[in-house]
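Q: Hi! First time asking for a complex rather than a single chain. Here are the components, and I think there are two in total. Is that enough to go on?
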Amino acid sequence: MKSLLFIITTLLASTLIFSQELTMEIPGLDDFRLPTVSEEEQASEVFDLLAAEIEWLKENPININTASRNELEKLFMLTSFQVHSLLEYRKTVGTINSLYELNYIYGFDIHTTSLIAPFVATGENKLNEPIIANKNDIKFKNVLLMRSGYKSNVKNNYAGSPLSAYFKLKGINENSIRYCFQGEKDAGEEFFSGSNSQGFDFNSAFIQIWAKTKKRKIIIGDYKVKSGQGLLIWNGFSPYKGAQSAGTIKRNQGIDGNNSKDEYNFLRGAAIECSLKKQKLYFYVSKKQIDVIADSLARNVSTSGYHRTNTEILRKNNAGELATGAMLRHEGKHLNAGLNWIYTRYNVPFQPSAEPYQVYSLFGSSVSGLSADYRLLYQKLQLFGEAAVSNSVPAIVNGVNMLVSPSLTTTLSYRHYPEGYFAPYSNALSENSRATNEQAVLTGFVWKTPWKTTLTAYSDIFSFPWLSYYTDRPLRGHEQFAELAYSPVTGTVFDILYRSEIKDKNTPEAEAATNHIKAFKRQNLRLQIKSDLAECLKTIARFEWCQAGFVDGEQQNGYLLFTDFGYKLPAGTIFSFRYTFFNTQAYDTRIYAFETDVLYTFTVPAYYGNGHKIYLMARQPLTDKFTLWFRYEKLKRFDDASKNYHGLNAQLILSF
Amino acid sequence: MLHFAKPWLYALIFLCVSTGITASDKVFYPGAREAGMAGSSVSVPGLWAVYHNPAGLGYLTSASAGICIENHYQLEELNTASLAVVVPERKGSFGFSSAYFGTSRFNEQKFAFGYGRCLGEKLSAGVLLDCFVANLPENNGSSVLLAGEAGLLYKPLPKLNMGFHVQNPTVASYKNYNNEFLPVVFRAGASWEDKQFILSQQVQLNSRGETILSIGSEIKLTENLALRAGVSNSRQANYSMGAGYFSQHLSCDVAFSHHPVLGFSSALTLHYQLVRNNR
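A: Yes, that's all I need. Here is the structure of the assembled complex.
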């Protein structure tokens, strides 16, 4: 089992925002924190979930004049305080006529407005109103998306071709019916042959029906469950650690159809949501096949979703998982609380391997969990938390957010997940990939200073009471982060980011049964200038430095430099271009950089070694209904030609 | 290769000019003004932009020409002579450059022709087509290489210039040289330009895995006189300073730079422009 250290993602805004379509500026997502990720494949899972979240928001713009508190809280870039003051504003002033008006709301600023602009609507088109009249109206808005890609560095010992393919057909009918079918073939997987004689390697579908009059929501097919603070189950996108509330608090608990192409993080079956007055009741049942890493005994669940090599193909769907659960939620003005229950049963008994760090992994063939969560918003204070018992071990996360002044928000949270805690779909605030074997305190603040500058900082001090994959002893560590963003004029932002993490790690030289551990330090410093040179021309220039090594040992250095252009023609054609140059001494000093890709796809390569990369991307609307996306990339390593690659990605989107 | 009286000279040359096996990898960044600012020149437009960043050609309004003579560590064998000519047209400028490094037995030359122009108020871009010629004693005759350069210069704020320049992005190599390629060099920098003051920073990454940071400044003491200083972590020199004197059409710049082990280098530039503009 390699998938120990999960992901990242956090905080601040970081990519080029262009035309709201080319790329998104997303708080809660940042390539800057990616170095803590152990496996890149897992990074892509997080970005898949994020892409699905954004896609969902874009297709269901929220009407800020009619939306309820819960609907507004789906905008994960808004803090709970901002949502509250928007509701207060609406109550006292009335209809919000234009997005510009948002800037006058207590706690809002231009930056916030620009972040939510792609996902909200104002005025008369009451998108979130229940459609009771016109029962026979079956106007569907459908989207067909087809994508194919090629990358030359895909290994040739895979069973399938290096081409990747993806298809998605989805539709929505005025908020009462929603459906989605999707199929995906990763590069290297077989397609209409061998193990996938039926077609795609991964297929997913759901249909979701709102019976508005009866206040029911029913989903048949694949769906996501989001409960509490993620201690038991959270299938959705989950931003990681941060000073902003988006990074620490989870909101919008509930169920939704699965529109992401993550091949593990969803449930398959049926789910129902019943709304009572201020309460909601959820039931769900799921039965699906999963991949289990096994020798003679089942050891662990594989979440990667890749079936390219013989081993991977053999383990495809080699075990069955039955999950069922229920949630009861109260959604009041101040208090949002819930009771959650989930039971998972496998048709194979798990038995962890003899490795000491695996001792507390899943043992047996069933897990049941129970939890209670709360979120209390009272004036300028927000308290949140969840207490759970799963696998017969209790775990807890608690926190408080305070709006000290309209310009200063602070966060403090404490989490304690004992080493025996295990919930199969947990996705809570943590340093580890899963909410287990961890104890930590996170503090942070966001200060919008009066000098056109925003200062964001957090500190996370953690310890792991039991061994983990990289450390043969219990470990301690801490992480510090600070960002200063200065925007002298609209459209230009100077950013300075610094992050340092010290975390114990096995020293490499020992091959003994028990390794020694030493503090390993990684620091990143980023300088970035984002500037809109003209209405149609957006640029980013970035310099990033990374240093890593054992605290008393030799330090490795790495540098990355890029210049990025996005250009939009009046006809709707968009070009995007980037030239990246990198010098890093080792893989430990790899530097990640977010790249624009075809819509709803994220590319976040890890750069290491010495080389350069270019990519070009274009979007061309063919007619009102067709849009074509195209991307070409080429990387050359000067120190190691075997790492060179080039790739193509093409995507066609048809809306009808 | 060359035979010097003293072995340490040989070692010096080896250290400064090349990284060992690679015989021909000289990238030319001449100009005494640029040298005085420790080479942090990618975001500073001027005549020598024809070497430093062709996008800078977009901002030139007067026809001008200049010559530059450089010496490294007071060694005769490390002299470089360079020429730059710029001819503006309505929206941009054409530039031509020619440089010669070395001696008659071992030399490297560069000829470049290019064009740079403004694209809108805040952006200019330029490209150069280069021809490199290397004459090495162990190689009968000379080796020729064709390469390209591209640059961008933009002004996010009225006083802020940002420059980007890539040398040899296509990774062109000398045919008969074991496929040794000319270094790929990417430089990015920003400069803050006030009436009497310029502060510029630059980062250079190259295909040898080096990262060179440099900071330079220029202060205009009077209408006619400027002083410059800079620091850098480059292998050629760490500290540099220089001065420039401008008359109506003619200007003259000198620069000295110092390396703690290798000693002093110097550069001298003479520069003539038809119409005086605000340099």
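A: Chain B touches chain A at residues 120-123, 152, 154-157, 162, 164, 166, 169, 171, 184, 186, 188, 190, 203, 205-211 (CB under 8 Å). Let me know if you'd like any chain examined more closely.
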